Automatic annotation (TrEMBL):
This is 4Fe-4S dicluster domain-containing protein. GO terms for molecular function: 4 iron, 4 sulfur cluster binding; metal ion binding. The keyword Ribosomal protein does not apply. InterPro entries: 4Fe4S_Fe-S-bd, 4Fe4S_Fe_S_CS, RnfB_subfamily. Keywords: 4Fe-4S, Electron transport, Iron, Iron-sulfur, Metal-binding, Transport. Residues 3-32, 44-71, 75-104 form the 4Fe-4S ferredoxin-type domain. The keyword 4Fe-4S applies. Signal peptide: none annotated.
Length: 153
């Protein structure tokens, strides 16, 4: 059984606590620029969409990386900062642009599920973000946060 992040958009208030917890947990600072989750505002009033790497089964970012800095292991796309040359091929390959450079262009930022204990889930006061079990080989697209966005696929 594997675990994935799931979002109930009807519950998200756009408070962005998930962004702050993520950046604090990974970089010990409060900054949405360093967060591995991004909360986007929808087209209509009070619609918000938390976005994060969905750890795709056939991850385009992994295939696009020329140095092997991205590798799929145990249902997670791992990033090795020491192998990365910041070419941004992973960003261009990701259909949702959910791997991106830090503001100072020193490394790439992507969700790593906090080692199996996501900070964003812990701080979400509305329980909009949950960490759920899914069957191995399940259609992860149904859990994809991108899939349910306004105008999404």
């Amino acid at each position: 059984m594997m675990r994935v992040l799931n979002v109930n958009y009807e519950k998200c208030t756009g408070c962005r606590l998930c962004e702050m917890a993520c950046s604090l947990g990974h970089f010990t600072l409060f900054s949405h620029w360093f967060s591995r989750i991004r909360v986007l505002k929808g087209k209509t009033f009070f619609h918000f969409y938390p976005q994060f790497c969905t750890q795709c089964g056939d991850a385009y970012c992994v295939r696009a990386c020329p140095t092997g800095a991205l590798e799929k292991k145990f249902d997670l796309v791992h990033y090795d900062r020491n192998k990365c040359i910041l070419c941004r091929q992973c960003t261009f390959a990701c259909p949702w642009g959910l791997i991106y450079p830090d503001p100072e262009m020193q490394f790439m930022i992507k969700c790593d599920l906090c080692g199996g204990d996501p900070e964003c889930v812990k701080v979400c006061l509305q329980d909009a973000i949950t960490f759920v079990d899914v069957e191995e080989g399940a259609d992860i697209k149904q859990f994809s946060n991108v899939n349910k966005m306004e105008g999404g696929r």
